UniProtKB/TrEMBL annotation:
Protein known as: Uncharacterized protein
Pro residues composition-biased segments: 414-430
Family indicated by similarity: Belongs to the ESV1 family.
Record keywords: Chloroplast, Plastid, Transit peptide
Cellular component, GO annotation: chloroplast stroma; starch grain
Protein's cellular compartments: Plastid, Chloroplast stroma
Keyword Plastid part of the UniProt annotation: yes
Organism of provenance: Oryza barthii
InterPro entries xref list: Alpha-glucan_binding_chloro (IPR052495)
Amino acid sequence: MAACSRGLVARPFDLTARGAAHWPCPAPRRRAIRCCCRAQQEPRRRLSKAAAAAPERTEEWRIDGNKPAAAARGRRRASLTAMPSLPFPSPRSRRQWKQQNFYPRCTPRGPAPQSRDTPPKRDTGIASEKEWGINLLDEAVKESGTNEDGSTWYRESGDDRGDNGYRCRWARMGGQSHDGTTEWKETPSLTFHYKSLTLGAEKSGKNGEGDSWWEKWKEVLYQDEWSNLARIERSAEKQAKSGAENAGWYEKWWEKYDAKGWTEKGAHKYGRLNEQSWWERWGEHYDGRGFVLKWTDKWAETDLGTKWGDKWEEKFFAGIGSRQGETWHVSPGGDRWSRTWGEEHFGNGKVHKYGKSTTGERWDLVVDEETYYEAEPHYGWADVVGDSTQLLSIQPVERPPGVYPTIDFSASSPAPPSDDPPGIPPPPLE
C-alpha cells in the first residue's frame, strides 16, 4: 500500500482469505490509505535519482522481479541486484524450483527418490510450504537401493523426543551416481516444543560439472508467553559454487510477522565471478501503526581496485518523512566521486530537495509534489497465515507443569544500516 499526503482513499484489506481467521488479525487501521501503484504495474524499490549520472562502470546494476516473500499469485516484489551472468544458468523468475516429486520420495513403498542435479535459483526469496512439499511420515523408515544405471539411493525417517515436550520428526534421503560425481541430500524436519513449532528442510548436492550447492528453509510459529500474540518467522539461505570458474553466490533471506501487523523483512547477498565481487543488503520495517523504514545498500569491486555502489534510506509516518541516498565510485588510483541527495516531505504537498556532488554540483529547493510511499507491506500477516496452512494445522504442545515463561524486556527494533561490509561467508558444503 502507499500513502499520499494529499488524500486518503479506502482500499480493501482481506483478512479472511486462506484461513486467516484462525489467528488474531491485525487491528483495523484508523484511516485507509491508497496504493500509488497502478493495478498492472510492478511495485519497485526506489532508486537514487542520481544513479543514472554515475560514472561509467564495468557492470550494470539492474532491477528485477524479486520475491522476498512467498506471495500469492499476482503479488510482486522488486529489489536491487548486481548480477553478472554465472557459468551455470540461474533463471530469476518466481520460485521455479518447485519439488513436484517430493511426496512420492517420502513414501517408503514408492519408487526410489530422484536426484536433482541443478543448483537453487537466485533472487527467488523464501519459498512457501506448498513449494517445498514437506510430507513427513509417522512411521520409522530405513531403506536403500541401487538403480539400473548403477546409482544408489537411501531414505530413512525417525522421531526424536526430549524434555519439556520436545519432539522432532525428521527424514533423510539422498543418493549418488555410480561414479560419485553427482550427489544430493535432503533433510526435512518438523520440531514440536511448547514454545514453538518449526517446519524446515535442508538440501545440498553436486553435479558432474563440479557445481555444488547448499540450501536451507525454515518456518517458525510461536506465541508470546505473556501477551499470547502469535508470530511467524520465515527464512532461507542459499549458496551455489561453480566447478569451472572462480564463481559463486550466497543469499540469506528473512521475514518476521506478528498478528498486529508488525513486519520486518531483509536480505543479504554476495556473489563473485572471477575478478569481480558484489554485495547487496536491504531491509524493511513496518511497526503496524503507520511507521515504515526501508533501506538498500549495494556495492561491487574488482581485483584491480575499482569500486562503486549506491545506497538509500527512507522513513515515513502519517505522510511525513524523508529520503536520502548516495551514489559513489572509486578508481583504481584512489580517486573518489560521489553524489549525495535528500528529500524532506512535510505532509502538506511541499518537498524540500537538496544534494551535492564532488564535481561541484549543488541544489537546494522546495517543490510542490505529492508524497507516495508504501505504508504497509504488500505481503503481510494475512498472507503469511494463508500460506502457512501446514504449520498452523499442527497441534501445539502444552506447556509442562512447573515451567514458567521467561522475562525478556528487550524491544524489537530495526537494525540501522551500517557502512561496514556485512560478514557473509558462504557456509561450507558437507
